[in-house]
Amino acid sequence: MIDQRVASFMKVSKARLAQDMLGAEQDTVSQICETPWFLEMYNQLELPKRATTGSAGYDFHLPCKMAFEPGKAMTIPTGIRCKIADGWFLCVVPRSGLGFKYGLRLVNTVGVIDSDYFGAKNEGHIIIKMTCDQPFELNAGERFAQGILLPYGIAFRDYALIAKREGGFGSTSD
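RE: above sequence
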């Protein structure tokens, strides 16, 4: 197998996680970031990793305990960002066992993290929105989704080559 190391996972800043997780206003972000519970949660964030050498997906871990309810969409700020080489993207899907057992799925069916998302104003924070068919709970640190790095091609006469992303999630839609 060819060694194709094309991405690096890292944490977003504490301030970014506080804003996205708690909807915190700018003036309270620094206070939240210094609270013991937030510091402990942030310090215990795990970077996505593969479970085995044959695993295609990098497992994402919950930052805190969550209770999933049927039909209720849950927004999960992961605290993670990913620097991806040009020509590649990160495809985010639920862990197959949770999908099979509880009907866990992404609200947008599949997540596409583009290589230029890393430089977005929101630090490229990977936020996953999910729903399910059966109620269940997961504890902080448990695996709930996975990201698979995939190459992509571009069409002839592609004129997007000079356009640059500025916004974060959903910023390329009209």
